[in-house]
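Here is one chain, start to finish.
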Amino acid sequence: MKDNVIKHLQMIQNIINRMALNSTLITAGAFLACMWLVLMPFVVSFVTLSFGIWFVISLGIADAFYLRQERLYRRLYDDVRAQHETTFSMDTGDVKDVPNVLETLMSKIIIIKYVPILAIVGIKILVIAMFGTRTLFM
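Its structure:
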C-alpha cells in the first residue's frame, strides 16, 4: 500500500473516531437529562417533562445522524483501502448501501439506548398523573 493511501486511511479513521465520540457524548447527555428529570423533586410539571421527552428524542435523532455518518465513513474507508492510488477525497456521496437517518433511528442500537430512557420519563409522568405532585421520590 502506498504512503498516500495510508495517510488517507488515517484521516478517515480520525473522522470515524470523532463520530463515535460524538455519539457516545450524546448518549451520555440523554442519560443525564433523563436522570435529572426523574430524580429532581421540583421537576413535576407535565410541561417540563414534555420538554425533557422532546430533548431526549432530539438527542436520539442527533445520535442517529452521527451513527449514519460513522457508517458512511466506514464504507469510504473500505473503498479507499481497496485502491492503490488516492485523491484524498472525503466525499461520501458515492457510498452505497448505508441506511438514511430515519432508518438508522429505527436501528437496534438506537432503540436499545433511547427507549428505556423514554420509558423512565414516561413512568414519572404516569406516577405524577396517578398520585399527583406530592410523591416521595418522584
